[in-house]
Structures are given as C-alpha cells and as structure tokens.
Design a protein that fits this description.
Among the domains are: 13-116, Winged helix-like DNA-binding domain superfamily/Winged helix DNA-binding domain (Arc Repressor Mutant, subunit A), CATH 1.10.10.10; 159-332, Serine Threonine Protein Phosphatase 5, Tetratricopeptide repeat. The protein contains 20 helices and 8 strands. It has helices at residues 40-51, 59-66, 74-88, 178-190, 196-212, 217-232, 239-256, 261-273, 278-291, 296-308, 312-325, 334-342, 345-356, 363-375, 379-392, 397-410, 412-421, 435-444, 447-459, 481-494; strands at residues 13-17, 20-23, 28-31, 34-37, 56-58, 98-101, 105-108, 113-116. The longest helix is centred in the middle third of the chain and has 18 residues, at 239-256.
Length: 496
C-alpha cells in the first residue's frame, strides 16, 4: 500500500469527527469552545489518519508520512501516538479513535468528514507551532558530551545521582575550545547543588553556550537536566510545565545523534514519570542500554522501571550489575527499596543501616527507616524517625512537642491522623500530597480518606502512585472494592 501525506498550505481543508474539528493548515484541534494547537508531528499524524480512516497503516508507512525528511525509528512514532491520544482524550485500552494493531501498526476508527475552502472559525489560538527541532542546525553532527541526569523517580530512590556528572572530555571529538568544555564541566558540577536559584543559573549559562556553539549538544542536555531538577524539587508535580521543552531537546539531540544513550534515557524517564507510557519508556530504556552500556544511570533508570512493573528479580539483578560495574554505588539505597517492596524488612533495614552507619547523613535514609518501621510494626522507631524528619523540614518545635505528647498518649495512628487533619505539605517519608495524605490516612486507619487521596494521586498522575498496587503499606485496603478500582485504574493507564 502506498500513501502520500499532503500538507495543507494554500487552502483550508477541515476535517470533522466525533464532535471535533481539525484544521491541518493551522495545526488546530477544536471541540466545542476548547482549542488545542498541536505539535507539528502530532498534527501530521492526525492528518495521516484523517486522510485514510478505517485503513490499516503500518508503522513504517506512518513514519514515512510523518517524518519524510528524517530517519527515525518506532520510538518516535510511539511518542507521537501517545501525544495524539492525549490530545484526543483517547484510551489505548478502549480506543475510540486510534486502535493499536499489535506488531503491525494502527487503525483510525472514527468516521471522518472533510470540506474544502471552509471559512476559518474565529479563534484566538496562537500561530502554528514551529517544528520540534527548531534550535539552530549544527554545522556537523558530534557525539554527545554528557550532563548528569538526576533520575529521582517516584519513590525517591536516587536523588544522590546528582553526584554523578560525567566529564565533557568523554566525547570522541572536540567541537569547541577547551575553555568552553571547562565551562560546561563547571556547570555539571553546579547541577549537584539542587536549589532553584542554582538550577536557574545553570540554565542561563548553558543557554549562552548554545547561542555561541549551537552544535554543542551537551549544553542542551544540561538545560534539560536543570529543568528536571527544578521539577524534582516540587516532587514532579509541575513536570507538565517543563515536559515540552525537555522533549524538544531530546528530539533535537537524537535527530543529530541517534545513538545518544543519555537522550534515550531522558525519553524513557519522561514517558514513565510524566505520561505513564510504560511501553514507550521500556523501548527508550532499551535504546539507552544499547547505546550507553557503560553509563550507570542507565542501569539505575531501567532498574526503577522494572520495580514499577513489579519485576523485582530483574531489578535486583540490575542493581547487582551496577555495583559490580562501579562499587561506588554501594552507598545508595536502591536495594533497600527492592527488599522493602518484597516485604523483607530485615534486609531492607540492614541495607539502610549499613549505609547510614558509614556514609554521610542522608534525609532519604530516615525516610526509608520510617517506612520500614511502620511496615514492620515498630511504632517507637517509626515515631523516632518521624521526629527527626519533622525537625529536618523545620516544623515548629511546639508542633513537634505536641506530636510527642499525642504519641505517648494515643499512639502512632493518632499522630498520623493529626498530620492528615493539619494537611502537612512536607515530605515526611511518604512523598508529597496528595499521596502523602493517602498514606497518613492508611496508617491512621481512615480508609475512606485514604481512597479519596489515592484517587487524587492517580488523577494527577503523581509519579509514586504507580507503586500503589505493589506497596505493602496498602495491604489493609486490599479487600476494599474501591481500592481495587484504584489499582485497576493504574493497571489500565500504565500498560504493564
């Protein structure tokens, strides 16, 4: 089957389907009073479907139609399909518009009507979105120079990864002066100081490099890294703000260096954390492993992906491999999370104490010990670690003293009920709200509130919510139909 996509420039062709109107010339999708300006590739993809409804389109055909000027693989198509589904409000498990034909391609289901030379509806939409790879075209394609990636995922496993910043001299060919490389290396070190002002300063300085040296790909990745760090500081609750730019950087880098393992790692991370698109994430991680087999962060990222899928055995194996490749990674807490999710609390506690007794003090260690103590029924240890966490986040001394009195009088459940009632918006070992409030409610025995906030965590796609079906903390809710509905929603969304 042969197809050719037609970009509408000189005339207005409008497509109508299922109460929606699509104007390809303006990349505009309209439903009622709601207007969306689609990214160029997403608009091209929708146009391909509208021009050939109810026809099976293979993956290769769609790639040829949507990327006629570029060499891309199926991962780019998967990302575009995911974005189009999101724009349409479609569900890949119960599709109204786009049906996946496993191993073959896709099929557009909705009936499409079109009309030519239609008057454009009045709209205040912005101009057509420019091409995704709009940064200046580099004069030559180079191998990447890495900026470090802080892949602090849902359970907060690897915040310390900011300490891993490969040098710019890892490149196979110098593209700028030694002075600029040194400047960039300094920025990667500055990324380790994860406070908002520092990250904004890194972005400002990296942009100056990209302006003078548009072919220097590592500077773009450094900007993406800093944006990720800013979102991390807000527990990724604002990842949607940064996602379009980070994805644009990934596309830009991969268009010039398709074997850039770190860029593939970013793609997998965003698909997993921001979109819960685990099929896309898994494919991206495989490419990251293929192209950067010696990058420890690739192993960490893929291991956490496996944990979210409940594949603890393989996650364990990857952590072991990481430690063999670089014994320095024994100082991180990753393995304790595997043990904890498996219900082996003694091993999880021993792993944390091994690190806490010999490494620099870590707030993350206290969070993990707090969770382990709660899961193992050690209320005294649970409250002692909670006290330390409350001090770390600078809760008022009088409040902490009140909590101690409450614990001695009424026990741990009353303490967490108080935290829930006060809507404490701090990370006290159980992430940030709304998931934190759900976890407080479980510990307090307030299951109705727990279900309420679990649903809210799923509604907002809070990254750690993907662990709800796996986390033993939620075992008291397991028999409740409303909790089972929560876990079913997660299963349906993340394509396990």
């Amino acid at each position: 089957m042969s197809h050719k996509i037609i970009r509408i420039i000189d005339m207005d062709i409008v497509y109508h389907f299922a109460g929606k109107t699509f104007i390809p010339a303006r990349n505009l999708l309209i439903e009622g009073n709601t207007e969306q300006v689609l990214e160029q590739r997403v608009s091209d993809l929708l146009l391909a479907f509208c021009q050939q409804p109810n026809q099976e389109l293979s993956k290769n055909e769609l790639i040829t139609l949507v990327w006629p000027d570029r060499v891309v693989n199926e991962d780019s198509l998967s990302v575009a399909i995911s974005k189009l589904r999101k724009a349409l409000g479609d569900n890949r498990h119960n599709p109204v518009y786009i049906k996946t034909l496993s191993g073959r391609g896709y099929l557009w289901l909705a009936t499409v009507d079109s009309e030519e030379n239609s008057p454009q509806p009045t709209t205040s939409a912005p101009p057509t979105t420019p091409e995704r790879d709009s940064p200046p075209t580099p004069r030559r394609v180079r191998k990447p120079l890495w900026a470090g990636l802080s892949l602090v995922l849902a359970v907060g496993l690897i915040g310390a990864l900011l300490l891993h910043q490969p040098s710019s001299t890892d490149t196979t060919e110098a593209v700028v002066s030694a002075e600029v490389i040194a400047q960039h290396d300094q920025l990667t070190k500055q990324l380790r100081q994860v406070d908002p002002d520092n990250q904004r300063d890194v972005i400002k300085k990296a942009r100056l490099i990209t302006e003078d040296y548009p072919e220097f790909l590592p500077a773009y990745l450094t900007i993406a890294q800093a944006k990720l760090n800013l979102s991390m500081l807000n527990s990724y609750r604002d990842i949607a703000i940064y996602q379009p730019e980070i994805e644009s950087i990934v596309d830009f880098v991969l268009a010039r260096d398709p074997e850039n393992g770190r860029a593939w790692l970013y793609r997998g991370w965003l698909a997993q954390i921001a979109d819960w698109e685990y099929e896309t994430a898994g494919s991206a991680y495989m490419n990251a492993l293929k192209y950067s087999p010696d990058d420890p962060l690739v192993y960490l990222g893929y291991s956490e992906y496996l944990m979210a899928l409940g594949d603890f055995e393989r996650a364990h194996a990857f952590f072991d491999q990481l430690r063999r490749e670089n014994p320095d990674y024994y100082k991180y807490l990753n393995m304790s999370f595997v043990y904890m999710l498996q219900g082996d609390y003694d091993k999880a506690r021993a792993e944390v104490h091994r690190i806490a007794n010999s490494e620099a003090e870590s707030r993350l260690a206290q969070r993990v010990l707090n969770r382990i103590a709660i899961l193992s029924g050690n209320d005294d240890e649970a409250f002692a670690t909670l006290q330390r966490l409350m001090r770390k986040v600078d809760l008022p001394k009088t409040f902490i003293e009140q909590m101690e009195t409450l614990f001695l009088r009424d026990g741990l459940a009353a303490v967490y009920q108080k935290l829930l009632d006060e809507r404490i918006d701090k990370n006290l070992g159980h992430h940030l709200p709304p998931l934190a409030w759900a976890r407080y409610a479980v510990i307090a025995g307030d299951f109705e509130q727990a279900i309420r906030w679990l649903n809210e965590a799923v509604n907002t796609k809070q990254p750690a919510a993907v662990f709800i079906p796996l986390d033993p903390l939620y075992q008291p809710l397991a028999s409740l139909p409303k909790f089972q509905q929560v876990t079913q929603r997660i299963e349906q969304q993340i394509s396990r």
